[in-house]
# Entry
Amino acid sequence: MRPLKRLLLPLCAVAACSVAAPALASESLTDFNATLRSLAVNTKGEALLTYTRSNGKVRHVLVWGAVNANAPLDPAVKQVRFKYDYAAGWGKYRNAKYWATFKNACTPYDGPELPYLVAACKAPDGSYWAVQAWQRSLPLLGFDPWKPSQTQFELHVSHWTGELPKLEVYTHWTYGGSWQGLFGRLTYLGNPVHGFGSTGDGNPRDRYGRNLYIDTFNSAYGPGWRRESGILAHKPNGTFCHSFVPQKPFPGYPSQEMRPPAPGEQYRVTVMGPGVTPVIQWVGPGLTSADRASAASVTAVFDQLMAGDARCAAER
# Structure
């Protein structure tokens, strides 16, 4: 058997991510642990989010200027992103009471099911707006949070038309059948989702890149869902892979003792869609001994889907 090695570096080696960092390509609001009160959309393509901040104060935020996503075809072409006015209309219109005259024209949501959904509606032009609340910064390797920032909820805003991004995930036996793992691909409208560069610890350097967050259910980490890893979608095919193997905790974690392999009864993969598309998620069962009979067919899928991904080749 090949010696084990970490082929995909975790998203936050020291669990110190900041959603405000441009490299993370997040379309989340800057206020954490906020409680959404309302989502409204007018006929001008603007959305108004009203929420209560963690300090109890109410805030009105104007959002506009982006829909869907650009494909990663040319790094010189910037990815779409929203414009925000956290001053309730003063920044855009020099009218601090703009929010009070905002006329909502959004109709009830009839779009696809979304994880972590807080509010959504259908705009007059037929496009969709949504707000999702997600604990993205949980510590990796099943550790219980030890910092307030690791438990915070982010409000993610999205605006799209047509199909959602597509997240393909498969479970398989890795390293010659020794361990359980996941592999898959992230695409949008037939184009792979990936960035043009990343840091050494796996953070995207541009707004095209995306990290996928892997959770395991009822595993060696304990009962319920636990965060296993955060991994990068690879260039040029938007592919990714991960094996549940023994791992050493990252610098800054509460313990440096080896963590056990943590295959679970279920797996969950969550990722922010490209551009300003929604957060999407895959949930599926873990492997059992009965699944070894179909290992060859899954390997064939791996060979086809992951062709050209040298970083994942050893986990076949």
About this structure: The two ends are 12 Å apart (CA to CA). DSSP finds two helices and 16 strands in the chain.
